[in-house]
Specification:
- By secondary structure, the chain is of the alpha+beta class.
- It folds into two domains: 1-152, no CATH class; 154-221 and 236-432, 4-Layer Sandwich (Anthranilate synthase).
- The chain is built from eight helices and 23 strands.
- It has helices at residues 74-88, 170-185, 209-218, 261-273, 275-292, 332-339, 350-360, 411-428; strands at 24-30, 49-53, 56-61, 65-70, 90-93, 103-107, 116-121, 124-129, 132-140, 162-165, 191-201, 223-227, 230-234, 237-242, 245-256, 296-300, 306-309, 313-324, 347-348, 371-376, 381-385, 389-393, 396-405.
- The strands form two sheets. Strands 1, 2, 3, 5, 8, 9, 10, 11, 12, 13, 19, 22 and 23 form a 13-stranded mixed β-sheet that branches. Strands 4, 6, 7, 14, 15, 16, 17, 18, 20 and 21 form a ten-stranded antiparallel β-sheet that branches.
Length: 432
Amino acid sequence: MGSLDSVTSSATPDVPTSATVDALVVRTVRLELDEADSLLALVPADRPVTWLRRGDGLVGWGVAAEVRTHGVTRFADAGKWWSETTARADVRDDVNEPGTGLVSFGSFAFADEPGDSVLVVPQVIVGRRGDVAWLTTVGEGTTTPTPDLRLVDEPPAPSAVSFADGALNGEQWMSVVADAVARISHGDLEKVVLARDLIATASEPIDVRWPLRRLAETYPMCWTFHVDGMFGATPEMLVRRERGLVTSRVLAGTIRRTGDDERDLALAATLARSSKDLEEHEYAVRSVADALEPHCSSMNVPEAPFVLHLPNVMHLATDVAGVVHDAATVSSLQLAEALHPSAAVGGTPTPVATDLIAEIEGMDRDRYAGPVGWIDASGDGEWGIALRSARVDGATVRLFAGCGIVADSDPEAELAEAQAKFVPVRDALTAD
C-alpha cells in the first residue's frame, strides 16, 4: 500500500499547514466491460470508494495517497494538497474522459467543528461512461499496481441489525422543530434545516459493499457513494464541473410516496402547488444561484421546479446550469466550498440558520450533508451532498435524515418526512 499523507489544520484559518506529497505514477487504459457488468461486483474489501449512477461512474480500492483536514480551512488545505499531488504526478491517460487519469475521492465535514474531512487517491480505479470503460492504476516511484480484475464474492449480509434513536427521540425532535418554527415566525430567519440520527447495530462488523449494492439497485437515479465510511444514495448534485460547464441539482420540498401510482400522481401535483414547499425550494435555488454567479459568465435558472420521483419520496427539483469563466483557477472542489452549505441543507439566511442548527439540533452532523464526490487533475469533478446517508464504523451505522423547516412547518409532518428519508439506508442494511 502507498504512503499516507496527512494534514491536520486548526480551526484558525491563518495557521500554516504543509504535507510531503510523494510523486505518483498514474496509468489509464481502456477496458472492455459488458454493459450488464456491475462495477460494484469488481470491488474488494480493501478501502473501497464508490460514485455510481445508472451503472456509470467510478469505483476504486486501495490507498495510494490520502489527506485528512479539519476546521475552517478543511477545503483549502485539501485543495492545496491536491494541487501539489497533481503537479508532481507522472500521468499517462489513453482515454481522456472525465474521471480518467489521476482522481481523488472526498468526503467533507458539514461544520467547521467538529469533524474530519478526507481526500483519498485509490490504487485502482475502474470507471465507465456510456460505452467507454477504463482502468486507472496509481503507484509510487516507477511502478503501478497490477490489479486482479475479477468478480468478487457477494459480501456478507449485515447480521441481526437493530435500530435505536440517536441523539433525540421523536418527541424531543418535534419539540426542537416547534422551537425553530417559533423563531422563524418571530422573524429571526426564514428557513432552517434540522436533522436527526438513527443508530443501527449489527452482531458483526458490516461490510459496506452490501448496502452499496442494494442502494445502487434500488435508487439508480441517485448517486450511490462511499468514501472512508460515509455512504449513501444522494439525489442531490451540489456541483458538477465538466469542461467549462457547471451544473447543480437543487432539491427542497418533499412529500412521501404511498406506493399507489394514482395517489402518488395526485400528491406530486399537490407538492408542485404547495406554497410552503415552493417557498422552501425558492430559498435553496436562490442560494445556489447566488454562490455560482461570481464564477459564471452566463447562467440558466429555471423559473419553476419539476417533481423528481424517487422510490420512497418525491422532491421539488431545479437544475441550475452555467458556463464557468474561471475554470483555470477555480476547481470543482472550490465551487463545492463556495456552495456549502446551501439553503437546502442549512437554511436562510445561512449564517443565522447554521448558528441555530448548532444551538438546538442536539447532535454532531459529522459528514452528513457535507460535500462528497471526486475531483480529477484538471479540477473537473462531481460533488454531491451526503444525504440519504450514514457512516459505518465496525458493527455500528449512524443514519442521518433532515428536513427544511419554514414558518408553517408541522412538527409531526416533519418527523414523518425524516422517517421516510431514513428508508433507503435502513432498508439497505436489512438482509433480503
